[in-house]
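Question (not urgent): is this output format expected?
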Amino acid sequence: MFSACEPPKNNHERDERTPMTNTAAVSPWRNLAWIAGALATSAAVVIGAVLAVVFAATVVVVGFIGSALFGLAAFAFRGRKVAGARNADPSLIEARNVGGHSWVAYGWNERR
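Got this back:
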């Protein structure tokens, strides 16, 4: 190939515009390298698929553990609200915190 801007190339100087000739196919290692590349690509695809399955299973397990933990926390808070401490001593009065250091006492003026 000849261009007006470039001098003609010698036979040993080739670029991407020149067609392939038998000089590129002379090496016996070319086919072996192609097969090795195909095997490496196949191995990478298989390993990637296995890792994708492992990480997907990990996400599922973390989700199950998180939902179980959330359920246990819900039961714990529910149990805290339902089960109130009953006074065994009738002389004790009930007081509730209404925010900060403020308390409201109930039953202090009732006779028991």
